[in-house]
Amino acid sequence: MSQFFYVHPENPQPRLINQAVEILRQGGVIVYPTDSGYALGCMIGDKHAMDHIVKIRQLPEGHNFTLVCSDLSELSNYSVVNNMAYRLIKNNTPGRYTFILTATKELPRRLMTSKRKTIGIRVPDNQIALDLLKSLGEPILSCSLMLPGEEYTTQSDPEEIRERLERQVDLIIHGGYLGQQPTTVIDLTEDSPVIVREGSGDISPFA
């Protein structure tokens, strides 16, 4: 049975945040809120936890995970960011955007897309997620919580998530009912940005 925390969406309780971080550090898989619905997350270096997420989602081999970061200071550790990309990311974070960047050697090869060696990175506009990240001190390896058979619908009701996943994950954080707001995905590996998927927000290039 998973643990189930009721966390205030605007003023997250530090005690619960710290407990959630400890579950992550012990190899747990958690369900946590973001600004685009609920997500599954684990530590970057934990292959067992990552494989468990793949099993829950029934993901195909090579599925792209995302590094969810607290701020832009972590970008250079895991990705190559030129001036154009940095300005674009800075002007659209935090928010519902995922940026595809060329990965650095610091990132485990199993997290990169097989051919291009890229990684998705984003900074969410959700206080619970941001507090988790700040307490953890590093990004959370994540993917949207879309259950098998519902590949285009991100789970947004924590009570329903509990009914379906309480025996499959270590923690579910109840951060309120979240609307389904998919991220806009932007490829920044070329000379000019390419919108791979249009989500719920407009892009602010440099202003």
Automatic annotation (TrEMBL):
Domain YrdC-like residue range list? 14-201
InterPro entries found in the cross-reference section: DHBP_synth_RibB-like_a/b_dom, Sua5-like_dom, SUA5_domain
Q: Which Gene3D superfamilies match?
A: DHBP synthase
Per its record, how is this protein called by name? Answer: Translation factor SUA5
Q: Which domain of life is it from?
A: Bacteria
Q: Name one GO molecular function term.
A: double-stranded RNA binding
